[in-house]
Design goal:
Number of helices: 4
Oligomer: single chain
Helix content: 25-40%
Distance between the termini: 25 Å
Largest sheet: 9 strands, mixed
Low-confidence stretches: 1-13, 15-27
Structural class: alpha+beta
Length: 174
């Protein structure tokens, strides 16, 4: 694992390298990178988000929604050895103080390896660096415990969108 100083250095460079031990002898290098809207990596990330988050709920992916994402910060965790996309998320400004964490998705093959946690940590660091004081999100009920372990707290009543219940969760990042 990286030391706190190494993580801080990586964050300043807008990249975070994650060491994940596949077995005791072999380690894979992964990094979190920013993804340009409209790039081929963005298209790949959008497909992953659909596969992991929307398709299981029976929702269709609507290209009309993609134009809203032009001003969002898109983050991806990639495998450095083969450039494979492992997961990603988005940060969308709400106002000058609050930014929304959206669509944290990790490929099924890599869930449980800490990638989601590292994406959230990195997103928090980028939000703080950009001057935001709070992150909010609408978390599906199945992942509320995950976000509570990351320091998020539920705020207000449950939100229902297209028949799915979400909890509004917030965290101060200052």
């Amino acid at each position: 694992l990286l030391s706190r100083r190494q993580r801080q250095m990586c964050i300043r460079d807008r990249k975070m390298v994650i060491l994940v031990f596949i077995n005791q002898k072999e380690a894979a290098m992964r990094e979190i990178v920013e993804v340009d809207y409209g790039s081929s990596r963005y298209d790949e990330l959008a497909k992953l988000r659909y596969k992991i988050l929307l398709e299981p709920l029976g929702f269709e992916f609507l290209d009309a929604h993609r134009s809203k994402e032009a001003n969002y910060l898109h983050l991806a965790c990639i495998e450095k050895l083969d450039d494979a996309l492992l997961g990603g998320c988005m940060l969308a400004p709400v106002d000058n103080e609050v930014i929304r964490l959206m669509q944290v998705a990790v490929d099924n093959k890599y869930q449980g390896e800490g990638i989601g946690r590292e994406l959230v940590k990195y997103a928090e660091a980028r939000a703080k660096e950009a001057g935001y004081s709070q992150i909010e999100m609408h978390a599906m009920l199945s992942v509320v415990d995950f976000y509570e372990k990351q320091g998020y707290v539920q705020e207000g009543d449950l939100i229902e969108e297209k028949g799915v219940s979400f909890a509004k969760m917030v965290k101060k990042v200052v």
